[in-house]
Design brief:
Blueprint (H helix, E strand, L loop, with lengths): L1 E5 L2 E5 L5 H7 L23 E4 L6 E2 L10 E3 L3 H15 L16 H9 L16 E2 L4 E3 L10 H10 L4 E4 L6 E4 L12 H5 L6 E2 L12 E6 L8 E7 L2 E7 L12 H5 L14 E4 L2 E4 L2 H19 L6 E2 L6 H13 L5 E2 L46 H4 L19 E8 L8 E2 L11 H5 L6 E2 L1 H22 L9 E4 L4 H11 L10 H4 L6 H11 L8 E7 L5 E7 L3
């Protein structure tokens, strides 16, 4: 630990910490823009200049390491003068549009300008103007003249979202934050850039000009979209949800949320949402009052119970419902004398579990692990147009894994082949979203942000490359197709499987498939089929087992095993 004196107060911090960290520990506020506790240090804005004893000039608190015995003053005349000078510099090109800026009332620059800004400007030249940019339907970059080049958004993309979608181009006063050659911002965490922007350069398009921050009432909530349970603040005006932002919780989501949590509230206000009860009368849906609707349902349930018994009544409730809603649904069904109620709408198995299933450790502890095995699912389903059967038939959404045991006996994995040469690159494409066709309302309505595919060509590609890959693997193992006791292909499409089998001249009873039962389970298909084949006694000690697959990115692989258990 290192002890320093900060505004006359002794503070101990870890060696390697910055003056800003010591100030946070001592609860001493130092004005800043580019510094953010979750991001790397950039020292771009210089707003955090402080007076360090024996230093020839003011030093940035965010980038000055502490040393034993260091004396720092944040409120001295030297520090205040430096901070006011930086503020004057930052305001030189900043437009005076606070009355129409969505950031008004929660703007860091606005707040600090009150304490450190001058009453008038000495700058007489023309202000710099930055052209607006369209980076998609969620983030507005219409007023980038407000940008102070703190690079928080750039660092967030690199360090948190893991995608460098924004960067700084040019130099000096010509510097601009922009995407690479007109690309859109597509990260699932992109909305957090709006939260961390200290000015009104990045704003929310759905929230644009809807309300002022002081007009909104706030309610704490929890995200229903995944099992993480990100903490949220729901902001409401006139009984209408207008914005959702993160509620900081270091044990769960820190200070970030996904875009699905941030923007899904728009469905609440959607024109196609059912907001009043309706009954079908004469083949047409008609709006009715709540009393009529509830009486209709009550009479219907009573009639079913009288004619068929309480066991004929059941309820499938949404797992996204609140605990209170689920409790009321349970009370209703059991009040009718039935125990038929469940929330497992998409489960394939229904075993009894002891206690509550959970990860086994806190979410926050995941970042401390040194080695993690992630068995992930195919995420292509998010960019597939499920109305286009010629495309989505080849894309699944599943995951699978097989645990293998090392053995001294001969056999095991004999050979494998993995390939991708880009030869089918022209068969898959996404029409919009890049620099040639930026995202717009038209591209979204025309469903141009989904994968498109030349279905017949991909079918020919798969039925050709799968046999070639397996023949290569068999050749490396010193075998021929006739030596294969069991072939487990990628369970994507039965026509592809049969086409590949015929090319290999493998008998039909030597091929194990389950696509007729489960459909395309993507990455899970081969492990699932292998486990089922073992359970059905199709695999024995000494069996020659071959596996072959092709992937959504027009990749392929094959493996040959000598089963020795």
């Amino acid at each position: 630990m290192v002890e320093i004196e900060l505004d006359g107060q002794k503070v101990e911090v870890a060696e390697g910490s910055m003056v800003m960290h010591a100030a946070e520990k001592a609860k001493i506020y130092i004005p800043h823009f580019c510094y953010h506790k979750k991001l790397s240090i950039a020292a771009n804005c210089r707003m955090c200049l402080v007076d360090v004893e024996k230093a020839p000039k003011p030093m940035p608190a965010c980038a000055t390491p502490v040393t034993q015995g260091m004396i720092v003053r944040t409120k001295s005349d030297k520090a205040i003068k430096a901070q006011k000078s930086v503020m004057e510099f930052l305001l030189i090109n900043h437009p005076l549009d606070c009355p129409i800026c969505d950031q008004g009332g929660e703007c860091q620059l606005q707040d600090l300008a009150v304490g450190y800004g001058g009453g008038s400007s000495r700058y007489q030249e023309e202000k710099r103007v930055v052209a607006p940019k369209d980076v998609g339907p969620l983030i507005s970059m219409e007023e980038m003249s407000r940008c102070i080049h703190c690079t928080r958004c750039v660092r967030f993309g690199q360090e948190i979202a893991g995608v460098m979608e924004l960067g700084m181009s040019h130099r000096g006063e010509h510097s601009e934050i922009e995407t690479f050659v007109g690309h859109t911002v597509d990260s699932e965490l992109s909305g957090n850039m709006i939260d961390i922007c200290p000015v009104g350069a990045l704003t929310s398009k759905p929230f644009r000009y809807k309300a002022r921050t002081w007009e909104l009432s706030r309610r704490k909530s929890v995200s229903p979209h995944d099992s993480t349970g990100a903490n949220l603040i729901v902001q409401v005006k006139n009984d209408r949800v207008l914005r959702v932002v993160p509620l900081e919780n270091e044990a769960v989501n820190e200070c970030w949320i996904a875009d699905r949590d941030r923007y899904s509230y728009e469905a609440l206000n959607g024109a196609d949402r059912l907001t009043r009860p309706m009954l079908k009368q004469g083949g047409q849906w008609q709006e009715v009052d709540w009393q009529t609707a509830l009486e209709y349902v009550a009479n219907g349930l009573k009639q079913i119970k009288d004619q068929h018994g309480a066991a004929a009544i059941g309820a499938l409730v949404s797992p996204h419902s609140t605990l209170e809603e689920l409790h009321l649904a349970t009370a209703l069904v059991r009040g009718l004398g039935s125990d038929n109620i469940d929330h497992r709408l998409r489960h394939a198995e229904f075993p009894r579990y002891e206690g509550v299933r959970w990860l086994g450790l806190p979410i926050a502890a995941l970042s401390q692990l040194q080695r993690v095995l992630v068995v992930g699912s195919d995420v292509n389903s998010r960019i597939l147009d499920w109305r286009d059967r010629t495309t989505c038939v080849l894309f699944g959404d599943g995951a699978g894994a097989v645990v293998l045991q090392v053995t001294e006996e001969p056999g095991g994995l004999l050979s494998f082949v993995l390939g991708s040469d880009g030869s089918g690159a022209e068969l898959l494409w996404v029409p919009a979203g890049g620099s040639r066709t930026p995202a717009s309302r038209d591209t979204v309505e025309q469903r141009q942000h989904y994968i498109k595919m030349d279905g017949p060509a991909v079918f020919r590609f798969a039925t050709t490359i799968m046999p070639e890959a397996l023949l290569t693997a068999l050749d490396r193992a010193g075998m021929s197709p006739q030596d294969v006791d069991l072939l487990i292909p990628h369970q994507a499409n039965i026509r592809i499987i049969n086409g590949a089998r015929r090319r290999l001249d493998i008998r039909e009873d030597a091929v194990f498939t389950n696509v007729d039962r489960y459909g395309n389970t993507s990455a899970a298909s081969i492990p699932v089929a292998l486990c089922e084949a073992i359970a059905e006694g199709r695999v024995h000690r000494g069996s020659n087992v071959a596996m072959v697959a092709f992937g959504a990115g027009l990749t392929w692989g094959a493996a040959v095993w000598k089963w020795n258990t």
